[in-house]
Design brief:
114 residues, mainly beta, SH3 type barrels, five-stranded antiparallel sheet, two-stranded antiparallel ribbon, 9 strands, elongated
Amino acid sequence: MAKIKKDDLVQVIAGRDKGKQGRVLRVDTKNNRVVVEGVQRVKKHVKIGQTQRGGTTGGIETVEAPIHISNVMLVGPDKKPIRVGYREVEVERNGRKKIVRERIGRRGGKEIEL
């Protein structure tokens, strides 16, 4: 289970974009990779084609490439990187008790809200 989720605000802690912050666009848990908005931008050559209206597509595009999940760190409410942990909480829903895992920040021990 990845501690980073889609739409989280993260900061890059290693690599050429170290220190940059951005939103997570996609998480690939199988390969332990994340795509972060505005980080790890690379040039991609796309074959030139035509749309149905006659416009051309393709050429050289700049897109975000995936980076390893260990090179990013979740940003807490104080805009500083924070480590993530889990806490099990008992919640009552529809008259039944259920144990739910919630993400917490290791520095303050508070729940991380999106």
